[in-house]
Specification:
mainly alpha; 5 helices; 2 strands; two-stranded antiparallel ribbon
C-alpha cells in the first residue's frame, strides 16, 4: 500500500473512531469534536482553541473531566455536548476552507 492510501485510511480510521466515541459517550473535548468532524489532530487543536474562546463568550460551560493519552500524564479537560459545540461554532468565523467545512459539520451535528 502506498503512502497516500495509507494516510487516507489512517485519517478515516481516526475520524470514525472519534465519532463513535462521541456517539457512545455523548460528550467530548472540543478537539475531539473537531477530529470526529474530519480534521487531523494538529488542525483540530488549532480550531479547538478558537472554539473554546467562543464557547466562553456564548456561555457554554461544559463539564470537567480528565484526559488520558497513552503514557502521558492525565490532565484536566472540559467536555462539551454537540449542542454546546454548535453554539460555539455559530459564533466562530474561520478563514480556512477546511475549517469552514468542519464548522458547518459541527453546527449540523447538534440536531
Amino acid at each position: 500500500m502506498n503512502r497516500i492510501a495509507h494516510r487516507v485510511l489512517a485519517d478515516r480510521r481516526r475520524t470514525n473512531r472519534a465519532a463513535a466515541k462521541l456517539r457512545r459517550r455523548g460528550v467530548a473535548t472540543v478537539a475531539g469534536h473537531c477530529i470526529a468532524a474530519g480534521l487531523r489532530p494538529s488542525d483540530a487543536r488549532s480550531m479547538a482553541s478558537s472554539l473554546r474562546r467562543n464557547a466562553v463568550k456564548a456561555g457554554c460551560e461544559g463539564r470537567a473531566g480528565t484526559s488520558h493519552a497513552g503514557r502521558r500524564p492525565a490532565r484536566a479537560c472540559t467536555r462539551y455536548t454537540p449542542a454546546e459545540v454548535a453554539v460555539a461554532a455559530s459564533a466562530y468565523r474561520p478563514r480556512r476552507d477546511d475549517f469552514r467545512a468542519v464548522r458547518a459539520a459541527l453546527m449540523a451535528g447538534s440536531s
